[in-house]
Amino acid sequence: MLFQRVITALILAPLVISAVWWLPTDRLALLVGLVVVIGAREWAQLSGITQLGGQLFYSLMVLLLLVAIALYLPAEWMPWVIGLSVLWWLAVLIRLYRFQGGAEAPGFVPQQMLEGIAVLIPAWLSLLEIHRIPEKGPALVLFLLILIWSADVGAYFAGHRWGKWKLAPQISPGKTREGVYGAMASALLCGLFLAWWLNGPIAQAPLILLLCLVTMLMSVVGDLFESLLKRRQGLKDSGALLPGHGGMLDRIDSLTAAAPVFLFGLLLFGVA
Q1: Residue 148's CB: how many other CB atoms inside 10 A?
Q2: Confidence band, pLDDT 50/70/90 cuts, at residue 104
Q3: Alpha-carbon distance 253 to 225, whole Å?
Q4: d(Cα 133, Cα 119) in Å, to the nearest integer?
């Protein structure tokens, strides 16, 4: 499994980096939109829709919503949308904290269809809004991706080396607190680089470190939230699209929570 994960990552990473760096924002919107639509089909499955027709219909609805937002959402509404998304993820954090376990029968969960929109659409908007920041946009998107990837690596190795205390055993038994500490260390190193690269006032450096740390922690929330949904439906992965990684949602679950939080911080600092 680890070998498959590494091979898939080695294939995908250069493609993703090239797309982020070279594509204009409008074309990147199409590529990320495709990822969101694929993720929407998997989300429909996690919501208990077992028929392919129903899953494709939900994907079509998400696609139409993406098109409508791209054409008609006023630019001045963007900070409000992102702010509401951050509040929603904070509510998810509270929900995960209060989760006490217990078996839930698999089946259709109607409200989860709306939750899918709250997860996927703001993430798409956030990545594009970051990408269109003058001069720094593509580099900031790449930084966000590297922040999440390095946190995953830090969590994996710290968890395997020192992992003892479970983080959320009722939701994702494989995650440990020590793994999160490893991810935090990676996030702080990334934050030091970002503070140096932005070359802002020295007093802003602790805030940059805090933003990277919070972004990383919220990426864990995104991961755990998808794990909770998979647990409800008795699934190990959201799909089988990516060998060693599972489905598309398994690859982007952390990013769906991290992207709005990261953009919100950039807005507060006046970067975006």
Answers
A1: 26
A2: low
A3: 8
A4: 22
Question: Which positions ≥6 away from 73 have C-beta within 8 Å?
Answer: 81, 125
**DSSP strand pairing (166-168 vs 172-176):** antiparallel
pLDDT class of 201 with cuts at 50, 70, 90:
confident
Transcribe 160-215 into DSSP letters: HHH--SEEETTTEEEEEHHHHHHHHHHHHHHHHHHHHHHT--GGGHHHHHHHHHHH
Long-range contacts of 24-29 (CB under 8 A, 24+ apart): 25/128, 25/131, 25/132, 25/137, 28/127, 28/128, 28/131, 29/70, 29/124, 29/128
Q: Answer for the pair 262, 130: CB distance below 8 angstroms, yes or no.
A: yes
Residue among 198, 194, 176 at smallest CA distance from 186 = 194
Q: At what angle do helices 111-131 and 205-233 cross, to 10 degrees?
A: 150
Residue 235: φ, ψ to 5°: -110, 145
Return mean pLDDT, the chain: 91
Position 1 scores a pLDDT of: 60
Q: Does 103 have pLDDT greater than 60? A: no
Give the closest residue to 17 by CA, choosing from 137, 135, 131, 141: 141
